[in-house]
């Protein structure tokens, strides 16, 4: 574990003030294969009932709430974001938005964004004269 000096700060989730409440922006890894784009977001402590994933007007949004793990205790130091979180991604025409799916396992949300058939790689048969 690294020690923090007086002028250093740990890398924390970004907190944004919206209205009267604070929300944080969870981090996501984005991967791509031939058939889909995958988004992996770390959301420790989030339950599926507290997670809202929507696609609307070209935007995929992930919104929810993380409740404190130990509300009855006083924290000495905290890097773990609690409260509301929000993240959005612009989705282009290369994604089949009717087939977007999400799953939550062990605090990681996985979003599957399948590509449309028009943008998927396809094998072209090569003909011969023989």
The CATH architecture name reads Sandwich
Shape: elongated
What is the CATH topology? Immunoglobulin-like
CATH hierarchy class name: Mainly Beta
Spatial separation of the terminal alpha carbons: 69 Å
Q: How many distinct domains?
A: 1
**Radius of gyration, rounded?**
20 Å
| Sheet with the most strands: spatial strand order | 1-2-7-6-5
Proportion of residues in extended strands? 35-45%
* Proportion of helical residues: under 10%
Tell me the number of strands.
9
| SSE series | EEEEEEEEE
Helix segment tally: 0
The parts where pLDDT drops under 50 for at least 5 residues are: 1-12, 15-20
Give average pLDDT, whole number.
82
Alpha-beta classification: mainly beta
Major sheet details: 5 strands, mixed
Q: What labels describe this entry?
A:
disordered N terminus, mainly beta, 130 residues, four-stranded antiparallel β-sheet, single chain, five-stranded mixed β-sheet
